[in-house]
Fold each of these.
Amino acid sequence: MHPETVHITPYRSHAWVLITLLTFTVITVTVTWIDLSALTVFIALLIASVKSFIVLTYFMHLKYESTLFRVFVFIVLFIYVLVILFTLADYAYR
Amino acid sequence: MTEEKTHHPEPSYLVDTGKYKGLMAWLTSTDHKRIGLMYMYAIMVFFSVGVILGVLMRMELYWPGQQIYGPQAYNGIFTIHGIIMIFTVVIPGLAAVFGNFSLPLMIGAKDVAFPRLNLFSFYLYVLGAAIALASQFMGNGPPDTGWTFYAPYSIQTQTNVVAAVFGAFVLGFSSILTGLNFIVTMHRMRAPGMTFFKMPLFPWSLYATAWIQVLATPIVGITLLMIIAERWLRIGFFDPSLGGDPILYQHLFWIYSHPAVYIMILPAMGVITEIIPTFALRRIFGYKAIAISSLAIASVGYFVWAHHMYTSGMSTTARWVFSLLTFLVAVPSAIKVFNWVTTMYKGSISVKPPFLFALGFIFLFMIGGMTGLSLGALATNIHVHDTAYVVAHFHYIVFGGVGFAFFAAIYYWYPKMYGRMYNIKMANWSFVFLFTGFNLLYFPQFIIGMMGMPRRYFDYLPQFTFGHQLSFWGGILLVIGFVIMLITLFSKKGAKAPDNPWGGRTFEWNIPSPPPVENFDIMPELGVNEGPYDYK
């Protein structure tokens, strides 16, 4: 029904993504040794978010896909944020 | 809709044409129609088990005090009744059976997008159901937590919670994969000319459902694994004695389990939307409103979960926010009901069994929906929370809604599935017994619930006796109706069904009954000015 377009990512890109992800993993472990008190969870989630972004963009080919796929991913993330916010409506005011 | 009627030389999908014959041919088939039927047989078996457990509960509750078994057995029976009915019957229910059988036929596709993944989903379903059932007979006795597995009790009880939870986890994966398959199928495999807003409304409802399956189910999956981790590794997620928060469990559980109600009910609404125009010979009223209301129910329904938790101790702010959202979700549901009724107005109505069940659905769903509003309001909820009133409301939605739509769908697509008709008179009798029995079983629960009868109680005060006894006899009528339906459908072969026995306009009625293996000899097409419901 729709014309298929195939994008082949070069090995070099995959290698760079792998190195970046491993580096962030090392950073994740390293920051656990530093006492950041209230910021600890925030930093861990920030690093995890950056890693997820890289995985989605390159490994899952979002960079090369049509706008529709990006819209879907945006909707999913938007729903996720709303779920967190509504849950916080309980925790913040309990 | 373009006529592509061909009397196909190819054999029907019911004839074994592949490498294997007999049972093996079915168990290894990737044909969406066979997989749909396999789901149907499995679901009917599980439904029968759930019904037997329900009758056992009603027998015990016939008189106050202990009658035939003790309180611990009662706890186990209502837990497994819930687990079986929710996770193996109503959640997969309509989407797995009729989504599989009818969706590709209705959109003009030869199969779903990923046929092997579809078969894999079925086997995950069987595996998950087997684990959940086995939990009854392993370890320290059947789980006694209720189907909701509320923490901290589910962390502390010595009964066999882990196996039941793991079974539900595996069933969730099956649901995710089916949803994913349907989304891709509808995006990529619609017939030429069939834009999204020319797609029949049952596929539309499956589309909204599939998104909930894909987005919400992983949350309950991880939540159930957290229970296992907490039991085995003593990590304090939910148990206060380990530093956890039990209300967090309720949030995580209901973030999935409320949208799960829409996984159940949206396909049911889709079935009704197919049946009403066919038997009223009228174009569906408000096509776009119904299509968009499915998406609206799916999206707003995602954010009403905490109305199950008003008495849990969560914040007042959260309570009124979720109460407001709960009232909002009633709007798209009401849009559908108004459109169904308006479609029937001035229609040439033919009262056949699928239509009767569709009317039954609307009646029961309205009672379930309206009583849902009193549960969604903060003040009235406090009064009836955890009473038999909730049991009645829930069953009016899930059984009166999903169950009756399931029966309607069987009677509607049965001639297409098997190429045979059934005895209409017997089918009508099954409706009479099911409808009467259903109301006699569950309506008294509203009344005794309002009077203060708690849910999930083994024993009760004498003033509730008459209500429980009415419910018992209603249950007996319901079982009789179900048996009549099984006899009507499966006891002997009926007359050969024509290709289009009901005068339907969607694609599946343009091909032979039963359909050939690859569905369409010539791919169907929708013209520029054609739609799925071109009656008048």
Note: The mean pLDDT of chain B is 93.
Amino acid sequence: MDNPQNLLITGTRKGIGKYLVEYYIEQGFRVIGCSRSAADYELEHYQHFCLDVSNEPAVKQMFFEIRKGYGGLHVLINNAGIASMNHVLSTPMKTVHNILNTNVAGTFLFCREAAKLMQIGQYGRIVNFSTVATPLQLEGEAVYAASKAAVFSLTQILARELSQFGITVNSVGPTPVATDLIRSVPKEKIDHLLARQAIPRLGTFEDIANVIDFFIQPKSEFITGQNIYLGGVS
Amino acid sequence: MHDQIVDIIIREVEEVNKKLPNRVPVELRNNAPLFGTDGALDSIGLVTLLVAIEQSVEDDFDSPLTLADERAMSQKNSPYQTIGTLAKYIESLLGGSHG
């Protein structure tokens, strides 16, 4: 890239987030990432921040440092998310608050602060994470699915509010991928879920990056407020 | 501190004035109406100005600042009614670390 773009990804300590860091550095981006605990890797053109995505002062401090260090931001990928497999009758309120804080409040906060930096250059690409758990109405995932439905609603409205600044906001809805997020889910449950997809297999990191690539390319300037589910789920 | 903040606001308002059909009368300084019944700014003009002021204050005071308030869009109680009320509001936000 002649003029490398600055790309921020949340939840980069492991899994999809870590893969996206490596993938986008390879594509020539300057990548900034964050997670609650320190990353156990260091890469050229990568800067890591330790923070909770719903902690406003910490997030604000990070964006302040990004503006001073990089001058602006081109792409935000709101990957950080938590899930909890539980029956509604045995779900503690603490779990509900944690999921909503990370998935909804965290996504909102990052969109708000990123948009402030993106409007400097009148250009921006924001990609949020939804999930197939919402349209598939997965039992045991009520709070997680509801939190991601909220993320899609945010995506649609922010797309409208931010369009005048040259910022697009879209979301990608992965199927189950072999990560920590589904490690605790029984195999029969995953098999049953995969059977409800048009293409019945686990997703891969590459599948997700492919959709993000489409959303963040400059020529996708007319694509906003959209959600793409993987695996043929609708 | 108040005068320093007013100067930052006026500097940023003058930038926004270049793009507005009805300019904000910055010569009134503290009394210049921004948003609300007498204000020249619409809601988009206001948020654009606030982001610019937020970043300018951050640069001058070398500290993060968030201009976000429940009363923002209120026609009666907005802290953004005049340059003076906005300066006071920013002063109160900075008060903790710069008092």
Note: The first helix of chain B runs from residue 2 to 17.
